[in-house]
Specification:
The radius of gyration is 21 Å and the shape is elongated. The longest helix is centred in the last third of the chain and has 37 residues. The chain has one domain. The protein is built from 5 helices and no strands. By secondary structure, it is an all-alpha fold. α1 packs across α4, α1 packs antiparallel against α5 and α2 crosses α4. Helices cover 86% and strands 0% of the residues.
């Protein structure tokens, strides 16, 4: 899990950078779009996606390969770009899922250990 966190750390940082950049650009977009929320959201979303794809491709940030998924590099770049463009929310969701998976593995291991102990006790008795 620690190596996974280390591998996904740069993706988290990139997502945070995209999120901060959009916060800085937001007032400019409001003035350019004359407070048209739909258009502003579209432009910011497209800008975020392009930056995410650029960071994924140019920076070599690959989420799927870090997760161990055997996939085509183009698919990995697109998925990684989408995740990065979502800011910190995308990577936080992945980390929460991994945390839940780790807890489930711990619970399963504890249950298996308990069953093995009970089986050993039954053999002795």
């Amino acid at each position: 899990m620690d190596t996974l966190v280390t591998a996904l750390g740069p993706v988290f940082a990139a997502g945070l950078a995209v999120q901060q950049l959009l916060e800085i650009i937001n007032p400019l977009m409001e003035s350019l779009t004359k407070n048209d929320e739909k258009r502003k959201k579209l432009y910011l979303g497209l800008m975020s996606l392009l930056i995410g794809l650029g960071l994924s491709f140019g920076g070599g940030l690959r989420v799927l390969s870090a997760l161990g998924a055997p996939t085509n590099w183009i698919v990995d770049i697109i998925v990684s770009g989408l995740i990065i463009s979502g800011g910190t929310e995308g990577i936080n969701s992945i980390m929460k899922y991994l945390g839940y998976s780790k807890e489930k593995e711990k619970a399963n291991a504890a249950a298996a250990k308990e069953e093995a102990g009970e089986a050993a006790l039954k053999k002795i008795a």
